[in-house]
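Apologies for my clumsy wording, but are you able to produce some protein sequence, whichever is easiest, and the tokens describing how it folds?
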Amino acid sequence: MFRLKKYFKTSLITFRNLFVAILIISLPCQAALAAETLVCASYPVWLFARYLNEGRDLFEVELLTNPATGCPHEFSPTPKDLNRLTKTKALVKNGLGLESYLDLALKVAPPDITVIDASAGIPTLAAGWGRVDIDGPQAPADRSPAMAPNPHIFLSPKLSIAMMANIAEGMTRLDPGGADHYASRLAAWEFSLASLLDDIERFRATHRGFKLVTSHGFMDYLARDMGLAVLADLSPIGTEAPPSAQRLARLGRLIGEERISAILLDPEADPAVGRSLSQEYKIPSAILDTATSGTYDPPEDYYAQILREDVDLLNRLFPANVQPPPPAPKPEAAPHNPKPIEPPTLD
């Protein structure tokens, strides 16, 4: 009996020691898999990171701006927003100056914060690409706002796939064990956009050559994909300022001379300006959703829904034609883009 009791006592001690050893060994793995905050600097990249995280849920994917902000060109973070940056180890940004507030905001972030730039390696268009010069030189060529890269890459479904790939690569660096998951989600994203991309190609084949005025450079990449030509903006290049009376007069002349087909506005633009020009020059004006705002709980396919609605709107706005394309604008190199994308081939 004494030997039996001693055996059980020894066995329990051994089992306890083994359990403690396993627990200690597993602690680093558990720590590595603990949820970490992944802060996103604008709504589109938040949608992308949220999609990639779905199903693995290693990260708490947070949006730094308010979901109703729209394009965050003039967003100013609150002290509460800045405090959130002090507690995160990773941040996802669109890049190319879209979130200009980050220049100052990142000064309060940890020095070792990982910044995932969704625009990395994506060739850009210069902000003034394709524009007719209605203002004359406003600054030396090397500092002209027209030469800055256009940051609105997210509105092109094609480029959204490249942005997602950059974010997936960054999340994989933070979570190597999730590599297969992020690759699978990226493939699912590309598959989900396949029919939309087909419709964009069909639009280019049957609706090419229409000329546009937009509120600012928000749709240049989508316009390029669809074979549309943006010739001017309501706001001076590099700003979202309301147009002056002089600028409206110059735009009016351009609309008549170039036979502009439509005026397309972003949701933050003053619709009264578009309506006024539309009524005066007898051309349609419409608001195109930029996918830069929404709610905190959008459906998983929210981005695809928005772009589908945009493409459907453009199909309704323009009659099908096979007219000769306008002269392709000469691409200009932006500071971050020594080799800009060539204009689309419309023939």
Observations:
- The chain has eleven helices and eight strands.
